[in-house]
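hey can u check if this looks right to u? its 374 residues, i copy pasted from the old doc so theres a chance i mangled smth
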Amino acid sequence: MTDATSPRPALIGLTRDELALALGTIDVPAKEARMRANQLWHWIYYRGATRFDAMTSISKPLRTRLEAHFIVGRPAVERHLLSVDGTHKWLLKFDDGQEVESVLIPETDRGALCLSSQVGCTLTCKFCHTGTQRLVRNLTAAEIVGQILNARDTIGEWPSPAGGRILSNIVVMGMGEPLYNYENVAKALAIAMDNEGIAISRRRITLSTAGVVPMIETVGRELAVGLAISLHAVRDELRDVLVPLNKKYPIAALLEACRRYPGSSNARRITFEYIMLKDVNDSPADARELVRLIAGIPAKVNLIPFNAWPGAPYECSTPAAMAAFADIVNRAGYSSPIRTPRGRDIMAACGQLKSESVKARRLLAAAAPPIPAG
């Protein structure tokens, strides 16, 4: 990530070793570079500094050299919407003009930041607005970390607090399939979990996947974060439609990977996300089959009321249908809350704000007068 007006590279998204290497390129001696890298880490990820001149523990001559060769780095905020319920939604723009969304959902004493991992998505899930957008590219680690820094900038949560945080949890379930961008997602989450910086506990991080089965064990072994599965159907023939990735990794293979997920226990339950679609997947028979499928897996089930957008192919289940479904799952011993919709007044469906931005640019371009020839 660079400044749009400058070729200087950004330092966010770099590991400590990479920061030391970057310092080496401006002639900081190797013996000193490690110490200076730790100082930069402290200022960038603990104090949230956006300018080198604020880094007062670093000598002024080195700050001047840093300013000449690097920027700290942040994504540009294209739009920031604040819901009546306190939910924040940002449309962030990167150097190449591509945009993604991130959302902060605050609660009374905590809050979860939903991160995007790709520009667009390749999975074309039928209920997901992002699925209507083509995959453009993966996000870099810097662009993923930048979403966290931007949220903390907005809510003023610097220096990184030890407790009482508004941004207390991270969920990687925004735009994109994170396991198709695993290297950058893993690097960004390692930065977020570092105790000397952003310091979000791995127990407060959840990664959501539509079911990239070969990567699930890797997530548990290398990151040991919470796992969420976008399940949404209990029969392969329906899930093939709702989540086309199911044609490659069907339900039985997905659930077997969940049973083998390292570290899962009653204290570390796997979350099954289940979107409630009227007369599609919300019958009592579906609920009973869900209970049968997840038997033996330490799990909870999040029931998600469908958040429709203009032209969406489905409707949300009725409150009575959702309550009946939840009751069956709860009586089987699985926590099954119905998620309270948040941020509906700020285009909360994932990907909707970006779609509105793209549409506005197209309309502007169509209305612009033609450029004279010659």
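The chain has a mean pLDDT of 90.
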